[in-house]
Task: inverse folding
C-alpha cells in the first residue's frame, strides 16, 4: 500500500529548479532509499514532503490526504517525523528533554483549557504527567542505549550519539513514517553498522523508513526499494539489484562513457 | 533615607514585573523584543483613563490593563514574530515609539504631553494605599511580583516552557516535532505584554499621574539590561537584575552626589554593564535555571 506519494512535485527557487516533476512513492512497511549525486534535490524533496518548504507545483498525499500546504507541525502530528542532514538538536536542553519535546503534542492537553491551561494544573497532577512523559522518554533512550546520558546537555554528546538522539526524538512523536536525512554522514564503519541494525529495529516497530544516504553499502544493504534523483528528476526506481545495474544511474554517478 | 530606599524597592517591584515578562520572551523563546515600554505605557494609560475619566475602581482597571496590553501584544506579535533577531528588535522598537507618539498626540483621550493627573489612590477593603506611605505600597507591589513570579515560573517549568526553549534552540526542529511555533511565540509575547501592562497600572497608581515622557525607549533598554544582568531564563535572577539596575540608577541620589554626577551617567553605566556582561559572563549573574520535575521544591540546581 502506498502511504505517501508526491505527484509531479516541482520546487523552483527563481530560475533554479531544484526538484522537477518528481513522482515519488513510499510503500508501507518498506525501507525506501533516496539517492543521487550532490545537489540532486533529495533534501529539497524531503523538505517539501515534511512541510518545511512548499512546492511550486504538484501535490503531496499522505494516506490519501492532501498535505501539500500543511505546516510542518501539522504534518508531524499526522505521523511524519524527520531528522536533519546537519543535526538540529536542542543543544542547551538535556538529552532527556530533547526526547520529551518529541512527546509534547501527544500528551498533556486538557480538553477544557488546552495545553497552556494544563500548565497550571495542581502540582500533584503535573508531577503525574511528568512521570508519564519521563517513562516514555526513557523508553526511547533505552532503545538507543542512551539512558546513561539522560541528564547531559545534548551539545555534549559525542557525534554518533547526537545522530541517535535525533532519531530518538523523532520516534517520540510516534510516527508512521520516519524520514532520515543522511543518518550515516560522518560515521565510522562501526557506527554505520550499528545504525543499520537500528534502522532494521525501527522497521520492526512497524514504522516505514525513508532515508537519504550517500553510503552505498548501507543503502544497498537495508533498502527494499531505491529511488534515484539527478538534477531534480526521478531517473530510476527499483530494488537495489536493479538500481545497481541501471545504466542511467551509473551514468549519473560516473559520467557517460566516451564512444 | 529610609523613604528613598523604599522608593527604590517599589520601582524595583514595578520593573521586576516587566523584567519577568521580558524574560519569558527573551530568556525562554529567545526573541529580542524591545517593546516593554510600549506595553508599560498602555497599562498605565488604561488605568489612568479609566479611573480619572470614567471613575472606575483600580481593581477593575488592573485586569483590564493586562488584557488591553496583552491584546496589543497579540496585534503586534502576529505580524512581527515571523521576523528574527535584529529585524524583530527593530520592528518592536518601532511599536514602542508609535505608542508613545499616539499618547503624545491623541489629545482628546490622553491629554497629550500634559498627561493625566490626579489619579485616585488605590484602596484595599476601604483602606487607602497611598504612595506617600511607602510601606503599604511596597507590600502591594511585591504581592503582584510574587503572583507574577509564581505564574510565570510555573508556566516556564511546565511542558510549555520546554516547548518555548525548544523554539529558542531550533525553531525548524521544534516545528518538525509537532510544536506550533507561531502560536507559542505569540502566546509568550501576549503573556509578557500583559504583565508589563500590570506594571504600568501600578506605576500610574504610584506616581498618581501619567505622561508620555515616562515611557521612552530607555525603559525597554533598562528592562532588557535587568534580564541580561540577572540571567536569562531565570525568573529569580531577573528580579535581582531589576533591583541592581534600579539601585545603580538611583545611586547618585542615594549617596547625595546627584549634583555632581549627571543623570546621563546611568545610561553610560547601563551600556558598560551590558558590554562587560557579554564579555565575561554572558549567562548573567545567576545563569539559566534548569527545569526540574514539577513539585520537587528541594531539588534545585543551577546550570551555568
Result:
Amino acid at each position: 500500500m502506498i502511504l505517501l506519494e508526491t505527484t509531479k512535485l516541482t520546487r523552483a527557487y527563481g530560475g533554479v529548479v531544484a526538484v522537477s516533476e518528481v513522482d515519488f512513492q513510499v510503500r508501507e512497511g518498506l525501507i525506501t532509499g533516496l539517492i543521487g549525486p550532490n545537489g540532486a534535490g533529495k533534501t529539497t524533496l524531503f523538505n517539501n514532503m515534511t512541510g518545511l518548504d512548499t512546492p511550486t507545483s504538484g501535490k503531496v498525499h499522505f494516506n490519501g490526504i492532501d498535505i501539500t500546504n500543511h505546516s510542518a507541525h501539522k504534518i508531524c502530528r499526522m505521523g511524519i517525523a524527520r531528522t536533519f542532514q546537519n543535526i538540529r538538536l536542542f543543544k542547551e536542553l538535556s538529552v532527556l528533554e530533547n526526547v520529551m519535546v518529541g512527546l509534547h503534542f501527544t500528551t498533556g492537553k486538557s480538553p477544557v483549557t488546552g495545553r497552556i491551561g494544563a500548565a497550571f494544573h495542581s502540582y500533584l497532577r503535573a508531577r503525574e504527567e511528568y512521570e508519564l512523559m519521563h517513562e516514555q522518554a526513557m523508553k526511547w533512550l533505552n532503545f538507543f542505549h542512551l539512558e546513561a546520558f539522560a541528564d547531559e546537555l545534548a551539545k555534549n554528546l559525542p557525534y554518533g550519539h547526537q545522530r541517535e538522539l535525533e532519531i530518538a526524538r523523532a520516534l517520540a512523536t510516534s510516527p508512521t513514517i520516519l524520514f532520515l536525512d543522511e543518518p550515516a554522514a560522518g560515521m565510522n564503519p562501526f557506527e554505520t553498522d550499528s545504525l543499520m541494525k537500528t534502522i532494521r529495529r525501527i522497521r520492526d516497530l512497524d514504522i516505514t523508513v525513508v532515508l537519504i544516504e550517500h553510503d552505498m553499502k548501507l543503502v544497498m544493504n537495508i533498502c527494499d526499494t531505491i529511488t534515484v534523483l539527478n538534477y531534480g528528476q526521478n531517473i530510476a526506481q527499483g530494488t537495489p539489484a536493479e538500481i545497481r545495474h541501471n545504466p542511467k544511474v551509473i551514468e549519473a554517478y560516473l559520467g557517460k562513457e566516451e564512444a | 533615607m529610609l523613604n528613598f530606599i523604599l522608593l527604590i524597592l517599589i520601582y524595583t517591584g514595578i520593573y521586576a514585573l516587566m523584567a519577568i515578562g521580558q524574560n519569558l520572551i527573551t530568556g525562554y523563546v529567545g526573541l529580542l523584543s524591545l517593546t516593554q515600554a510600549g506595553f508599560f505605557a498602555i497599562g498605565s494609560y488604561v488605568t489612568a483613563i479609566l479611573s480619572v475619566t470614567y471613575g472606575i475602581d483600580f481593581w477593575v482597571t488592573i485586569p483590564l490593563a493586562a488584557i488591553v496590553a496583552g491584546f496589543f501584544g497579540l496585534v503586534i506579535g502576529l505580524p512581527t514574530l515571523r521576523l528574527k533577531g535584529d529585524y524583530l528588535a527593530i520592528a518592536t522598537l518601532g511599536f514602542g515609539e508609535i505608542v508613545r507618539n499616539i499618547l503624545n498626540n491623541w489629545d482628546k483621550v490622553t491629554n497629550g504631553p500634559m498627561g493625566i493627573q490626579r489619579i485616585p489612590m488605590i484602596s484595599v477593603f476601604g483602606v487607602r494605599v497611598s504612595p506617600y506611605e511607602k510601606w503599604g505600597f511596597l507590600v502591594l507591589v511585591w504581592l503582584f511580583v510574587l503572583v507574577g513570579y509564581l505564574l510565570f515560573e510555573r508556566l516556564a517549568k511546565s511542558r510549555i516552557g520546554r516547548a518555548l526553549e525548544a523554539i529558542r534552540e531550533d525553531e525548524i526542529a521544534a516545528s518538525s516535532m509537532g510544536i506550533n511555533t507561531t502560536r507559542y511565540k505569540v502566546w509568550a509575547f501576549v503573556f509578557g505584554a500583559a504583565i508589563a501592562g500590570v506594571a504600568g497600572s501600578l506605576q500610574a497608581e504610584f506616581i498618581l499621574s501619567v505622561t508620555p515622557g515616562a515611557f521612552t525607549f530607555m525603559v525597554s533598554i533598562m528592562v532588557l539590561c535587568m534580564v541580561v544582568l540577572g540571567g536569562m531564563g531565570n525568573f529569580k535572577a531577573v528580579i535581582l537584575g531589576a533591583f541592581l539596575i534600579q539601585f545603580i540608577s538611583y545611586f547618585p541620589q542615594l549617596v547625595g552626589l546627584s549634583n555632581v554626577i549627571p543623570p546621563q551617567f546611568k545610561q553610560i553605566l547601563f551600556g558598560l554593564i551590558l558590554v562587560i556582561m557579554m564579555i565575561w559572563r554572558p549567562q548573567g549573574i545567576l545563569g539559566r535555571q534548569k527545569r526540574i520535575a514539577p513539585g520537587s521544591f528541594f531539588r534545585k540546581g543551577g546550570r551555568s
Notes: The first helix of chain A runs from residue 42 to 49.
